[in-house]
Each structure stands twice: as structure tokens, then as C-alpha cells.
Amino acid sequence: MSAEHAPIVPTYANCIRTDKPALVIPELVSKDDERGPAIHCTNIAVAGCVRYTTWFGGSYEGATDTQIWFSKNIDGKWTKPRAIAGNKEGEEIVYWNPVLFIPDRSQPKHLHVFFKKFTPIPVWVTFWMASDDGAPKPGPADNFKQGDKWIRSKLIELPNDRGKPYGGFPGEGVIQPGTWESKDQPGHCHMTMRSSVGCVIQADSTDYGRTWGPAFRTSLPNNNSGHCVTTLRDGRVVWAGNYQTQSWGPRTPLCLAISEDDGKTWKLWATLEDAPPPEDFKRVIALETGIVNDGRSEFSYPCLTPTEDDDETGVWVSWTWQRRGIMTAKVVEGK
Q: Which of 158, 188, 311, 321 could lock 168 by a disulfide, CB 3.0 to 4.6 Å apart?
């Protein structure tokens, strides 16, 4: 697990690429909405030929006017974003990081939206709301107690390299996992995690995620920012993230990589955004009350979901566009 024996993360210029780059069909959901000018942390879900997305937005990340926003795409057109949680009259509470979830694609209008409340970040509490008509509405949200509805696993074992019992990696540790299950090995699950050591960290399970093996370094880059993984219908695995290795480094370029061997090796599949960071950029300023960032050349926190069974094989992806907009794209095999 030490850096000395870890897989090498190739540079963006030298990484292996697929023979044919993917076909990327982008869509703009929202941009420069004065009701929530600073926006971030989008999710995307697709069912019944309808695309749904959520994000948080307010005057700045961590502000008490931050709300959870929602839009959906019907017949090729995104609806005007509307707030579904937050900024109630007399309420001085910060809202963060929504997660959109459709438990069963055969019931495409049955949506769950999870989100965080309160500040600073270490005191976050998860809340959730459900909708049966594909249109979440403002209203009471339930406090989500971990373990109420999901399997609660033990913590991932991290190496003891900080000189402390049960310590983690040097730096901030690992958070924000993405998961997939091996197509040909039911119950064999894999978890990729954001880290502060320049690469994605992974742990594996053979019992449907009830227990996990030790975490280990991979050849995928990570800049201590959000990433995502999902599987295609044929079992290939797709990763989305910034191709950077500096902790709190630039959140550009934003790329997709694909694996044909269940995540053992990866090839660059597509580059969604590739603007250079500002000349005066040094690092992302991360506080417990939120990120301090003007958003220039930030393309971050991608979310992936597979295309539907009656569609061509590929993924839908959404991401933060310079803290001013929400982008989505359909990504399929190149012609």
C-alpha cells in the first residue's frame, strides 16, 4: 500500500486511450441563474425516457440561502429549475450535496432525494424526501438515520502510516465512494474513494458489501475531489473525474475512463472539459464551512448513470460547470 509499491498514475498526456474516443453529446441544464448563482454537486438519474438532475445553489457554498434545486428533461427540453428544499422563511440552515436515486427503473417516477443540512461539515445530518410522480415538492423531509434502510458496513481498513493505531493515509483520508458489482461474480463489489494522496483508493468486498478488504491505491488519478463510477450493460466499468493528482489541485480536465477487466486497468475514453486553470491558481481553499472558489475552470463532481436498456450502450453524466452552471451529456461509443 505504500507509495513506493503503488501503481503509477500516468500523466494525462501519456495515459492509454481507447482506439476510438467516445461520442459526447452535451446539454446545458442551467447557467447563471440569479436565484442561486453559485451552484455545485449535481446528480443525474434516468428512467422512462426522462432525465432528472439535482444540485445545491445559493449566493455561495455554505450560505444560509443555499437550496436544493431540481430539473427534469422531457422530450429533449430541461424544465426551469425549482427549489425543493432549503431557505425557508426564518430558517438559517445550510443545505448541501443532494443525491438523486431511482430504486427501480420500472417505476420511473418514484424518486428519492437525499441531502445534507447544517454547518460546519463535520456536523452534517442526512435528510431525504420521496416522490411518486417524478416531481419532488417542497415539504417536510425525514431525518435519515444510517442503517434504517441500508446495510451498514464496518469502516474500510486503512493502512497505519500516520504512526497512529488504525490511522489512514497522510492527509485527509478517504471519502465519497463510488461502487459497482462485478457482472460475472455476484456479491463481488468494489468501492473507489476520493483521497489526498494523488490517486483513487479502492477496497473490495466478496459478500455484497457487508465487509470490505483493506484499501489500496490504484492507477486512477484523484485531486481530492469528487469522482463517480458505474457499469455498462456489457460489464465494462466507467469512471469520471478530474485527471489531476495534486491534492486540492485544479478541477480540470474532466475525463471519463473505461475498464474492460473489472477495474484492473483503465483507458481514457473521453475528455468532457479541458480548460486550463487560471494562471494565479495555487490550490482549492477548503474550509469546514465550504469551498472558497470563484469557479474559474472548475469542472467537477461528475455523476454517472447508465443509459436505459432500450437505448444505445453508454452513460449519462452531469457535472458542475465553473460553479455557474450544470452540464449533462450522453456518452456512447465513437463511430
A: 158
